[in-house]
Design brief:
The chain is α/β, with parallel strands linked by helices and about 190 residues long. Helices cover about 40% and strands about 25% of the residues. The longest helix has 15 residues. It binds guanosine-5'-diphosphate and adenosine-5'-diphosphate (ADP). Adenosine-5'-diphosphate (ADP) binds next to helix 1 and helix 5. It catalyses: GMP + ATP = GDP + ADP.
Length: about 190
């Protein structure tokens, strides 16, 4: 039987990380799929926990070796990707990988693991709400905030490609909905 995989995607700021962290804390059957990335670590982020932080050269070597289940240049000059070895590491633990990736990456990984995948799109209430959440999170410069919002506009049109669309207006409601979907799937 195919191994299961859960893919959660959303425009930046929609609340995916918040929801995924809670699920992981509550459901020991899941494990976070640690992505590789060439972006700089934020304060508090740890290599091998939040991301595998790689140089662009290292990332290119993995592309050439066909090591990725999917990868994208999510923001200008910044690569993000899911290593096949990471999914295998989690399946070897007898757990289900929880993959938190951008919308294009989610579409491509879904095609690859179709039968065994649950795909969830977290929908923000509006672009204005996204702007507020990203500003309040305090992780973006004016330029990176605008880049994320421009990308979000485009990504919202992909929502119908996914198995489930969950509106994250009220966080508690959104979380309960996602949790029920995940429990039903695993
Ligand atoms: N395609 C792809 N996207 C990823 C991967 N890992 C993270 N991302 C996405 O890259 C985007 C930027 O992530 P990050 O810089 O951590 O900022 P965030 O928007 O605060 O989560 C988010 O949309 C992530 O879901 C990956 O392995 N592959
Ligand atoms: N329903 C919600 N209402 C208001 N703020 C929220 C809600 N869900 C998440 N947030 C906040 O919005 C910001 C972006 O959420 P985050 O989980 O980092 O998003 P993403 O991982 O999708 O970029 C965070 O500061 C988070 O605390």
């Amino acid at each position: 039987m195919d191994h299961k995989i859960i893919i959660i995607t959303a425009p930046s700021g929609a609340g995916k990380t918040t929801i995924v962290r809670r699920l992981l804390a509550e459901l020991p059957q899941l494990a976070f799929s640690i992505s590789a990335s060439t972006r700089a670590p934020r304060e508090n982020e740890v290599h091998g926990r939040d991301y595998y932080f790689l140089s662009t050269d290292e990332f290119h070597q993995h592309i050439e070796a066909n090591d990725f289940a999917e990868y994208e240049m999510v923001y200008v000059g910044k690569y993000y990707g899911t290593l096949k070895s990471e999914l295998q590491r989690i399946w070897d633990l007898g757990k289900v990988p929880m993959v938190d990736i951008d919308v294009k990456g989610a579409v491509s990984i879904k095609e690859k693991y179709q039968q065994a995948a649950l795909t969830i799109f977290i929908q923000p209430p509006s672009l204005e709400a996204l702007r507020e959440r990203l500003s309040e999170r305090g992780t973006e410069t004016q330029a990176s905030l605008e880049e994320r919002l421009a990308k979000a506009r485009y990504e919202l049109s992909f929502a119908p490609e996914f198995d489930e669309i969950v509106l994250n207006d009220d966080l508690e409601k959104a979380y309960a909905t996602v949790k029920a979907l995940v429990l039903n799937f695993i």
